[in-house]
User: Fold Antibiotic biosynthesis monooxygenase from Winogradskya consettensis.
Amino acid sequence: MALHDQPAYIIKMRAKPGLGDKLFELATAGMQKSGSSDRFIIAREDDDPDVLWNMEVFKSEEAKAGYEGSPLADELRDEIIGLLAEPPMRVAVHPYSAAPVA
Assistant:
């Protein structure tokens, strides 16, 4: 499967003040446990440590659907939503290219 055929999300979440560390811990643990992602990047804003950006590339449409309907996704979603100061922003994307920088 070509990279541009893999479904992905870019997600922005803002934790309630002081809950940024917990949000990052849950999001990172969830990505590692799910097994549905081919790769992911979780980044923290320099100017606001309570803001998380996540780009997650799924192995396939089937892996994405399997994760989204899983008990793990439900559990993480409930825990994460409780930490947020505002609704998350999620944009569905497909990677165009990815390569290491020489």
Remarks:
- The beta strands are 8-14, 37-44, 51-58, 89-93.
- The longest helix spans residues 20-34.
- DSSP finds three helices and four strands in the chain.
- The first strand starts at residue 8 and ends at 14.
